[in-house]
């Protein structure tokens, strides 16, 4: 992040975590938030039969891979936007944060999605006033790097 002096208060972390849990699709997939900070966001996705894309090999669906990377990236962008809008009133901040959305997402699939669970980690590459660029990685719980992504997000 560009502003290393700003920090997330515990109640702000809780509000951001609550935001991600309000999205029905995230619940459907079973995405769990592991950690949230100014430097990184980590999420866990348990493997389930409903998430398989290649039924012959039991491999995670590519769309699920892209989704978890996008959710982690979007949450990291939300963290940056929250830090940059702390000087605004609550209504102004909510108006700005409500505009957050994905502009572009590039995913490189490196290995088949095999594993009992997956960990997504997102870190900011650039966090500007209007746009954030976020780097994401998806690892199998067993350690293999499954995919990487770079997302560009509108932040207000």
Automatic annotation (TrEMBL):
Residues 57-146 form the Thioesterase domain. It comes from the Bacteria. It catalyses: a fatty acyl-CoA + H2O = a fatty acid + CoA + H(+); a medium-chain fatty acyl-CoA + H2O = a medium-chain fatty acid + CoA + H(+); a long-chain fatty acyl-CoA + H2O = a long-chain fatty acid + CoA + H(+). The keyword Hydrolase applies. Pfam families: 4HBT. CDD domains: PaaI_thioesterase. It is an enzyme of class 3 (hydrolase). Belongs to the YigI thioesterase family. This is Medium/long-chain acyl-CoA thioesterase YigI.
């Amino acid at each position: 992040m560009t502003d290393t002096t700003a920090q997330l208060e515990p109640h702000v972390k809780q509000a951001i975590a609550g935001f991600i849990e309000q999205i029905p699709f995230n619940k459907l997939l079973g995405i769990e938030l592991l950690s949230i900070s100014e430097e990184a966001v980590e999420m866990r996705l348990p493997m389930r039969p409903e998430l398989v894309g290649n039924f012959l090999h039991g491999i995670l669906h590519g769309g699920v891979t892209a989704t978890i990377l996008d959710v982690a990236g979007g949450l990291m962008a939300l963290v940056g936007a929250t830090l940059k809008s702390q000087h605004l009133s609550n209504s102004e901040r909510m108006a700005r944060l409500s505009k957050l959305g994905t502009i572009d997402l590039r995913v490189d699939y490196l290995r088949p999605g095999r594993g009992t669970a997956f960990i997504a980690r997102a870190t900011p590459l650039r966090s500007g006033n209007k746009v954030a660029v976020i780097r994401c990685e998806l690892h199998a719980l067993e350690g293999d790097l499954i995919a990487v992504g770079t997302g560009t997000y509108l932040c207000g």
